[in-house]
Every structure is written in structure tokens, then in C-alpha cells.
Design goal:
The complex is a heterodimer of chains A (333) and B (247). Helices cover 71% and strands 1% of the residues of chain A. Chain A has 333 residues and is an all-alpha fold. Chain A has a domain of 230 residues. Classes of the chains: A mainly alpha (333), B alpha/beta (247). Chains A and B meet through helix 7 and helix 8 of A and helix 2, helix 3 and helix 5 of B.
């Protein structure tokens, strides 16, 4: 009974170690650009993991998750812009703490309001309404002429995480401009998000979400209204996606409305489904496969989306548990 | 003493009167049978008692408290629980987890994020007790979807009991059960009425007559007879409705 989860945990640990060390091995082999690819991979894995809390645990197919990435990214882009070029002193700052506070607050509020409305609907309606809210953010960002509108905004400096008093104690400041330091920060964030999602999944709270996913009628007939639990999950997932957006703005030195396009939300869903919806590490595997395939396929052809789509079809048709599900399944005898 | 009663409960769907001014009264620690031909409105009535359907008129009173406006989860917390005609289980959960979750639902809010609920001893112990009571102990770790039809019916009841209901409404609990399973369930329900009050909707007349202390007969949404089971069985209207000689 205990064998499968343990194996799964070991497998997940291996995947994480592989992700952690590959860019350094490649750096050693003289291919430093892999650090860049893996940084993007880890950031997308954070976003996909946050979506999996909704999609896998709660069974809520939110199709507007990219909105939170955009909000998180602009929570870096706008304060840095003002700090660099002047204006809006109350907002302007290079401080990463301020960016996180701002991003988390905005994402939590946006999730609270849109979730409160969206969660009153079900199925296709839920998908459409979450997508509609995300489109609203897209058009809002496009309309912000001051921040470049359609063209976006470049971020001149990465967020600065200064711990007050740390220098006095001789602890060096975190230099986010150093690519491998930034990579380790992203990786640590991924671990934190995975840890919290795993904790939530097995908690009282997580069991309500899972039960409501399977049979909402029955949950109500046992005396629980799943609405508030789902709303909280929606807010938590929004905050985590916002964190990935904050990292993404730092990674790309650039924010733009294209981060919020609905295809971005679709790609996140793709990663979760590709990796496997019933497991903690599924989204990480899905994001890895997505980024690596994108890298290799786009070398061969600009139409790399076509083989990509075929792959998704194959995984959905033949591997109901995604890639991890296919690996986990015992061979038929 | 009346635990659950309805006053002129009415519900229409377009031109069809599904529930016609029903006055039902359940006495404490008794089994109340509700019978009627197909389409008489039994399930519609249960749905209104459970809070899934809002009645057009009339009131539902639980322990002297008007619960007509309460939603379904709030009614369950107030002590009014139902089972489903078609088993409504959590198919990805194990049998034990199904019941443990029902115990969790009774235990208060679930905004707890840290401890592993699967290792909650209080929930699991109570769930094991209930499984023992329903004779499902040796299936505790099987997936709920792997159970036989009859076992799923029993799990359904175990989950409802986990909410410690004042009134338990059983919507055709014997449907699709084998004779032996039915016998076992009849015995169990017989014992249950010491702790709770039962409303039994059932097509199996042997089971109804074996269990019901009181009996109500629903025809075209209206109660045509209600009272002691022995009396209702002799009622000429009831005999007519069931034999179909006149309407």
C-alpha cells in the first residue's frame, strides 16, 4: 500500500535534483545558455504548480491563470519604472519586498473578487468567466499607455532583497543580477510552493476540495458548503501565480500584456495535464517537458506547435494520468 | 413528540402539482415509512425536506425550529441528513476515507491546513466504528468504486450516520440489494431508531412493513393516509391506490 507514494516521492525528488543541477553541469560543459532556459522552466513550473492546486486538487478548470502572472510582473515593472524615471513616489521602489507585497496583495484581491463571482458558475461557464476576467486584465494593461501599452515595459534592474541589518552582521546581500543566484532563488521558490501545495493537498482543507471535485452534491449532503473552501484555494493559487509573475519580470527584464494572453493560460493548463493531474510533481514534469520540447522543436521548425499538439493528444488519449501516470502504471500481465 | 414536520408543503412544476399541501409528522425514535406509486412525488418531497428544492409554500420544522429557509448544508448541521437513491460516493477515495470525510464534515469547519487529515485518529477511529457497524470493515482500504452495488448502499448509510443525524432520510436504501444484505440492513435500521428518527422511502414492501411504526402514503403529490402503520394498511383508499381498482 505504501510503496507507490514512496516511489513517487523518490521520483519527484530525482526530477527536482535533475532540474537543480543540469544547468550547472551545462555551465561546466561550456553551455551557459542552459541556465537561462532552466530559469524559465522553474518559473513556469511554479505557475503550473499553482494552477494544479485548482485543476488537480479542486477540479476547477481556471482558464485565466495568466492574469496573475501579468499582475505579479507589473507589480515589479511599474515600481521599477517610477523609481528609474521618477513619479508616483509612493509606488516607486527597487525593493523586492515591496514588489512581493504589492504583487501578492493585488493578486489576492483580484482572485477574491473574480473568484467570488466565477465560483458561482460551473463547468464551461467557469472556464469562460475566468478567461473573461483575464482578458479584462489584458485590455487594461494594453490601455496603460504610460507603461508602454501593447509594447510593454522594460525592467532596468532586478528586485533588490535587502535584509535590514544583514550587512552589519556580515551577511552579503542577495545579488539577483547574478544569473545563478537568481536561478537558486527561483528554485527555492518552487520548493516552497510545492511544499505548501503538498501540505494543503493532504490537509482537512485539501480533502474538502478533493471531495467536492468528485461529488459536490454529496459534500453538501454531509453539511459542508464547498464555496468558501474553493474561494480560498482560488486566492492561494492566484498568489502563487503572482509570485511566478514577479520572478518572470525579473527573469526577462521585461513585462508586457502578451504575458496575459489566453494562450498563456492554455499553456499552463497544457503543462499540468501533460505532466499528470493527480500528482504533486506532475506540473513540474509538464513544465519541464514543455520548455525543453519548445526549445528543441523550435530549432527544427517554426511550426513547432504542430508536433506539440499531437503530443498532447497522444498523452490525453493514451495516458490518462499524464506522463507520470504513464510511467507509474504497472505493465499488464 | 414530533421531530420533523411539514405544514402545507407545496411545490408545482408548471402545471404539475408535485407536492400538494403535505402535512407530514415524524415522531421521535420511530421509523416512518413513506410509500406511493412511481411518480407520486416521494423524491421531490425528500428534496424539499433536505433543502435541495425550495418549496412554493408551506413550512418545514425540525425540533420546533423553522428550517424552511435554510440551505442544504445548514440543515445537515442542524441534524437532518439524507441518503441518495443512487449511491453518491467519492469514488477516488477509499471506503475508509469516504466515511472519515463524513466524520470530518461533522467535526466542524475544515479551515485547517497543516496536519495530515489521513492520519487523524479521531476521524479514522470513528470511521472504523461505522464501517464495523455496516459490516464493511474488511473493505476499508478498497476504493469506493470497487465495492459491489450492495456494499455501496451500505457505505452510503455509514456516511450519513457519521453526521449523527436527528432525522435520517433514507431514499430507497434497499434498491438493488440482495436478500441477505436487505435482511442485515433491516436489522441495523431496527437498532438505529433507538438513537435517531428514520424516514424510509422504499419500494420493498416487506422491508417497509417489517420496519415502519408509522406510515404515510403519497399519491399524485398528496398524502392520502398517514398514521400508525397497522391502521394505514387497512385504509380502503390505500388499498385502492395500490391495487389500482379506482383512483
Amino acid at each position: 500500500m505504501n510503496g507507490v507514494p514512496t516511489l513517487h516521492r523518490i521520483g519527484g525528488g530525482l526530477v527536482l535534483l535533475l532540474i537543480l543541477f543540469t544547468p550547472f553541469v551545462m555551465l561546466w560543459l561550456g553551455k551557459p545558455f542552459w541556465l537561462d532556459i532552466f530559469t524559465r522552466l522553474v518559473i513556469l513550473a511554479i505557475a503550473a504548480s499553482s494552477l494544479s492546486l485548482l485543476l488537480s486538487v479542486a477540479g476547477l478548470a481556471s482558464f485565466g491563470h495568466a492574469a496573475y502572472i501579468g499582475l505579479g510582473a507589473y507589480a515589479v515593472g511599474i515600481p521599477v519604472y517610477y523609481e528609474t524615471y521618477g513619479g508616483a513616489d509612493w509606488l516607486a521602489s527597487y525593493s523586492g519586498w515591496w514588489h512581493v507585497l504589492l504583487g501578492v496583495t493585488v493578486c489576492a484581491l483580484f482572485a477574491l473578487v473574480t473568484g467570488a463571482i466565477s465560483l458561482r458558475t460551473k463547468g464551461v461557464h467557469f472556464i469562460m468567466i475566468t478567461m473573461a476576467f483575464s482578458q479584462m486584465i489584458l485590455y487594461l494593461l494594453v490601455a496603460l499607455e504610460e507603461f508602454g501599452g501593447d509594447d510593454g515595459l522594460s525592467v532596468d534592474l532586478r528586485s533588490e532583497f535587502v535584509v535590514p541589518g544583514a550587512q552589519v552582521l556580515g551577511i552579503p546581500a542577495l545579488n539577483m543580477e547574478e544569473p545563478w543566484v537568481f536561478y537558486l532563488v527561483c528554485f527555492a521558490m518552487l520548493l516552497l510552493v510545492l511544499f505548501i501545495v503538498a501540505k494543503l493537498r493532504h490537509s482537512h482543507f485539501g480533502r474538502v476540495l478533493q471531495a467536492a471535485k468528485q461529488n459536490e452534491l454529496r459534500v453538501k449532503a454531509l453539511g459542508i458548503n464547498p464555496y468558501r473552501y474553493r474561494l480560498l484555494a482560488f486566492v492561494v493559487a492566484g498568489i502563487f501565480a503572482g509570485l511566478s509573475g514577479i520572478l518572470f519580470a525579473n527573469y526577462a527584464y521585461f513585462v508586457s500584456p502578451s504575458m496575459v494572453e489566453w494562450t498563456r493560460s492554455g499553456e499552463l493548463m497544457f503543462m499540468v495535464i501533460l505532466g499528470g493531474v493527480s500528482t504533486l510533481f506532475g506540473p513540474v514534469v509538464g513544465a519541464s517537458v514543455f520548455v525543453l520540447l519548445e526549445h528543441f522543436l523550435s530549432r527544427f521548425t517554426v511550426f513547432w506547435h504542430l508536433p506539440f499538439g499531437i503530443l498532447l493528444l497522444v498523452v490525453v488519449l493514451f495516458g490518462r494520468g499524464g506522463i507520470i501516470g504513464m510511467l507509474k502504471r504497472e505493465p499488464k500481465t | 413528540m414530533s421531530v420533523l414536520e411539514t405544514n402545507n408543503l407545496s411545490k408545482r412544476f408548471g402545471g404539475v402539482v408535485a407536492t400538494d399541501a403535505v402535512n407530514l409528522s415524524l415522531q421521535k425514535n420511530r421509523v416512518h415509512g413513506l410509500i406511493g406509486p412511481n411518480g407520486a412525488g416521494k423524491t421531490t418531497l425528500i428534496a424539499q425536506l433536505a433543502g435541495q428544492l425550495v418549496p412554493d409554500a408551506g413550512r418545514v420544522i425540525l425540533n420546533s425550529r423553522d428550517i424552511t429557509r435554510l440551505g442544504e448544508p445548514a440543515r445537515v448541521r442542524a441534524g437532518l441528513t439524507r441518503t441518495f437513491q443512487i449511491s453518491a460516493l467519492f469514488n477516488d477515495f477509499s471506503v475508509l476515507e469516504n466515511v472519515a470525510f463524513a466524520v470530518q464534515a461533522k467535526a466542524g469547519h475544515s479551515f485547517r491546513f497543516w496536519s495530515n487529515v489521513g492520519q487523524n485518529k479521531k476521524f479514522n477511529d470513528r470511521a472504523h466504528e461505522l464501517l464495523e457497524l455496516l459490516g464493511l470493515s474488511n473493505q476499508a482500504h478498497a476504493n469506493a468504486s470497487a465495492l459491489s452495488h450492495g456494499e455501496q448502499r451500505q457505505l452510503e448509510i455509514a456516511m450519513a450516520l457519521a453526521t449523527k443525524p436527528l432525522v435520517l432520510m433514507l431514499d430507497e436504501p434497499m434498491a438493488g440489494m440482495g436478500a441477505e444484505e436487505s435482511m442485515r440492513l433491516i436489522q441495523l435500521l431496527q437498532e438505529l431508531k433507538h438513537d435517531t428518527t428514520l424516514l424510509l422511502v422504499e419500494h420493498d414492501m416487506d422491508a417497509v412493513f417489517a420496519l415502519a411504526d408509522d406510515l404515510s402514503v403519497l399519491v399524485n403529490g398528496a398524502l392520502i393516509a398517514t398514521g400508525l402503520a397497522a391502521d394505514v394498511r387497512q385504509n380502503p383508499d390505500v388499498i385502492a391506490a395500490y391495487l389500482g381498482t379506482s383512483t
